[in-house]
Amino acid sequence: MAVPKRKHSNSRSGKRRSHHRIKPRQLTYCPQCSTPVPTHVVCPKCGAYQGRIVVEMEQQ
User: Fold this and answer.
1) Which family does it belong to (predicted)?
2) Torsion-angle region of residue 5: left (phi > 0), alpha (psi -120 to 50) or beta?
3) pLDDT, tens digit, for every residue of 4-40?
4) What are phi and psi of 36, to 5 degrees?
5) Which of 22, 2, 1, 18 is nearest to 10 (CA)?
6) Model pTM score
7) Nearest one of 45, 18, 15 to 29, comparing CA atoms
């Protein structure tokens, strides 16, 4: 079985892990009701997606 000859330095490990951070959700505003909504998601308030009504919402 192959075994590394030397230990990877902390710097090298850190460079590899530099992309492992959690990125914040990207928010856009619904063109119908101006509610902040994550991208590629149907608006929970009005049911619109890409300029058309996809889900009929009940009026409360």
Assistant:
1) Belongs to the bacterial ribosomal protein bL32 family.
2) alpha
3) 999 999 999 999 999 999 999 999 999 889 999 999 9
4) -65, 130
5) 18
6) 0.58
7) 45
